[in-house]
Amino acid sequence: MSQVSILVFDIFGTVVDWHGSIVRELSAAHPQVDADAFARAWREGYQPAMQRVRSGERAWTRIDELHRGILDEILPRFGLDHLDEDQRARLNRVWHRLDPWPDSVPGLTRLKARFTLCSLSNGNIGLLTNMAKRAGLPWDCVLSAEVFRAYKPDPRVYLGAAEVFDLPPAEVMMVAAHQDDLAAARACGLATAYIERPLEFGAAHVKDVSPDPANTRHARDLLDLAEQLGC
């Protein structure tokens, strides 16, 4: 760890509670809808949509547009196909309004005292900036797949983050709540830290957060990671 100076973070699920945020907003606006099922259905379309971009089937497309396409597909399933354009556009921007996990802001603030902190998300730059402004996320730099025109786990994203700071990959640590993200980062030479987020998909769908010994660190949350890293 002595050589690591940059921490780059996955965002959805790791730093912010996408499921809980969508459930709360949808429940308030449309109480008749199964908000838990809606949130999970929206997220289930995320990887297939990005894969169409990765494969070249679709030209580079920002996450905001991919989210909107998935939203339009699932609205009829939940009896919301009557929503007009303004309502759909506002609902789609819920991804800009996701709430941080309770430990995120204090944990990041402690980590920032020793490390440079940077987002490294598939979310687009506008989305990540709006989210950070609203939630008080103290990034030193906002990096996105949009910068590299490639979606994780494409190596261009992880290696690109190191290149931005003119550092070898070993001096960058990927922090995420998803083992596949960390495995891809590790394959590019980055250090890795796993953050347990057992409730990422809601209390009814508790996630396995078992340690993977291949990771450099395993932490309960971002405050625990800060403690482990001497912050």
Automatic annotation (TrEMBL):
<dbReference type="Pfam" id="PF00702">
    <property type="entry name" value="Hydrolase"/>
</dbReference>
<comment type="function">
    <text>Catalyzes the hydrolytic dehalogenation of small (S)-2-haloalkanoic acids to yield the corresponding (R)-2-hydroxyalkanoic acids.</text>
</comment>
<dbReference type="InterPro" id="IPR023214">
    <property type="entry name" value="HAD_sf"/>
</dbReference>
<dbReference type="InterPro" id="IPR036412">
    <property type="entry name" value="HAD-like_sf"/>
</dbReference>
<comment type="similarity">
    <text>Belongs to the HAD-like hydrolase superfamily. S-2-haloalkanoic acid dehalogenase family.</text>
</comment>
<protein>
    <recommendedName>
        <fullName>(S)-2-haloacid dehalogenase</fullName>
        <ecNumber>3.8.1.2</ecNumber>
    </recommendedName>
</protein>
<dbReference type="InterPro" id="IPR006328">
    <property type="entry name" value="2-HAD"/>
</dbReference>
<dbReference type="GO" id="GO:0018784">
    <property type="term" value="F:(S)-2-haloacid dehalogenase activity"/>
</dbReference>
<keyword id="KW-0378">Hydrolase</keyword>
<dbReference type="InterPro" id="IPR051540">
    <property type="entry name" value="S-2-haloacid_dehalogenase"/>
</dbReference>
<dbReference type="InterPro" id="IPR023198">
    <property type="entry name" value="PGP-like_dom2"/>
</dbReference>
<dbReference type="InterPro" id="IPR006439">
    <property type="entry name" value="HAD-SF_hydro_IA"/>
</dbReference>
